[in-house]
């Protein structure tokens, strides 16, 4: 371990954010910039009968107005992942137009863009656009969308299913095992729809430069290169080398800023049409209506146990809403990021999951922090606890009985699951043991039974999760339907003076890459952190990249940088050997210098760098310069895991839930910066608790969103949460150079079922075995009364 | 959204009925109404501006009356459009003689909203509706006072 | 309408539309883009500033209402390039991640510490109730404000 790796180095990006000097997209003003506003549908499903822009065109300051009739990207935005029907039929993939032309398919779908000199003028003029609609019946619930006679979202097909897919063992075999099981636990519930709610609303500025025919799009994305690829190749048909995407400071993403959105392409197209830059920044109401949502699974599940509590089979059927169109990664979320985790941390011998993914008249659904894995974890961790409750077993005991035994992935092989994946390394019981010790499990049980005597309702909930991160090996995801590779790019450019610029295809929108990446780069090169600069978020600067999501930045992006550092040191050694007049094999590299072993003869990194760029006295045949770029394609996913434990008290009179303690024991492999990992866990836990207790996007029968603002969509506030107690176990990832697994999503994956398990535990003696999320006081109170 | 309420008016059922059926009076007493144009028997075009607290908007659209039973009740059908969303409502109004010689007006119905009104306004809309209803009946009362004066 | 507003110690006079929010005024007219707009219902607090010494959400104050007042924004917190103790504490305790809610958090923290110089955890959480953070789970924001209180009181 070096000087910086493993230390809680304070973040270098903080000063600018703390002083109000961050540069988010909406903070950028370009000369001659125009502003835009959208006219959006007030209906979930409607025919557009007429769009009248005549009054709006006359309004002050209007520069241009475009409707679906204009030739803006007629192919629409594409989907990046193909998941076919289990019978071999191709996934149904509708066009997703930049502006709706004839038909509205979700509330808030854009009908017209109004571009004006100022934002106020654009908004004023947008109010003058008259749209005549014929409202049609809508369907928002994924299960109802598959019922006979449900309104069709796309008339091209005879049902709403985008695909019908399954994974795991033969269904009949699983059903037969359930028939024979000693006990079968059943669950039926909804993993409710959530709005990601990054605090910075989406914001875009498109600019077209007639000199050179070049486009620049400033965008709040997690994924600049992929946006460029999709927009150029599929939507607008632009040559990629003429398009630059800039995404510097981004105010949170949580998945919602991975995707290529219609507004990005529309603004880019419009910038050329009007010959001026055009800006659009979403307001929060628009964000609720147009940012991709998360979750929305309707679940029916059965898990069979033998008389000792060992799981013998697991069968689940789900309806997973896609929304009105297929967002970039949407089909992967309830399938390959979900079904592949159905093994959990247990030795379940027989597993079958069937997923029907219908279109609904709602905003598209896509990856939201955890993406498919929180939904899998919620199911497994709830149903095993419910099974224990029904069989009169302890929630910890049933888990110990079913755990996959520890394996390090080096001496012992990885664990082959029933659902395609092979786990890299794990020690699940160690994490649970640590969590229970931190809690004082036995003492808590005593306290709980004492409290019950006094009418107080205390509960504890355990969740022992696993997730698949670091996505991912390109060949694997390609075979699973991904239309992109999921490698990462890292370029290390040593400047002549020995200062180092690192260009990464990963993207930081809160994760602190500028600090963490610099930590390991400085350590590996033996130089000061101040001599390392991390650059990201500009396609003209960074060779290529696949962006940040799926907790992949360090595991994949970091590994690509390491590969380049290896190349730097290899070439550097050649230069050093020449300078020291020694054989390369006789050199060792440490603390920023090459030394001839057993002597005090050495040459510094800076000297070698300078020599590389001023190659007067230089090894024969060696190219000048010290600048390497590498693509790293991982050989497997990484599998972080852990134990989350929640302690709650339920108010006996009102059903209100107070989260009293939250213990998170996470194994994310090796840790580069504990402070940042803890921060990631805290934030993930808060979002997971939010789903358990507070958050839900609700649509009414007509497809109107009734939780479209912070007055009705309840996110966790400071007084909804306790201090979060974090612990780690460390099981290094055996297949990447840093031994890291990823920490971005763990908190959101493990926490939700822990909280719900705790509430059910608090009410277990009242006969409560399940409650539908979110656990609002009235929902809990009702459960208590039955 | 469910709409429900009642109000006692100090006039007989026949007086109240005549007032409700008179577009000129309706235009005067209905809060926010700027214009009420009779299109045909019991069909009106209405232009209104509603301003209550944070809710403000100009509405235009149709208003019609059906299922009329003289002096007993009718159904009011409202279809109004605005920039912040549209409202479609059916409200059944019943008149009953009260003990003190006045009229008990009860109304019940359902309103469907869309757009911003639905996503941001549902929570405050029921308050807005109850305020507007109160204003309506207060104005009716004043109208009755004027008549008896 | 003409307004004269003192922002971070400097006086500005502008002719503005009456409907312009104070947040927009700060961002667009004064280029003080540290004040962020995260919602449209006063729910998120990213736009929090101090107006005549009190924390307010500048998205729900009209610029004309601020006529004659003294405003401090996040850009006015550091003095001579030196971070305010609250800012320094946020860095020390990792009280920020994406940074978008951060200016509002720092400004509301100043208000909390003005009203509760020795705040309990409950005081802090109560005081933060009007401000959303989606990254930190508030844990380290609370720790930051606790540290700031200690530093200021020393």
UniProtKB/TrEMBL annotation, chain A:
SUPFAM superfamilies: CO dehydrogenase molybdoprotein N-domain-like, Molybdenum cofactor-binding domain. Keywords: Molybdenum, Oxidoreductase. The keyword Oxidoreductase applies. GO terms for molecular function: iron ion binding; oxidoreductase activity. Pfam families: Ald_Xan_dh_C, MoCoBD_1, MoCoBD_2. Coiled coil: none annotated. Residues 19-137 form the Aldehyde oxidase/xanthine dehydrogenase a/b hammerhead domain. This is Xanthine dehydrogenase family protein molybdopterin-binding subunit. It comes from Euzebyella marina.
From TrEMBL, chain B:
It holds the Pfam family COXG. InterPro entries: CO_DH_gsu, START-like_dom_sf. CDD domains: CoxG. It comes from the Bacteria. This is Carbon monoxide dehydrogenase. It comes from Euzebyella marina.
From TrEMBL, chain C:
Residues 1-77 form the 2Fe-2S ferredoxin-type domain. InterPro entries: 2Fe-2S-bd (IPR002888), 2Fe-2S-bd_dom_sf (IPR036884), 2Fe-2S_ferredoxin-like_sf (IPR036010), 2Fe-2S_ferredoxin-type (IPR001041), Beta-grasp_dom_sf (IPR012675), Diverse_Oxidoreductases (IPR051452). The keyword rRNA processing does not apply. Keywords: 2Fe-2S, Iron, Iron-sulfur, Metal-binding, Oxidoreductase. One of its GO terms (molecular function) is metal ion binding. It comes from the Bacteria. This is (2Fe-2S)-binding protein.
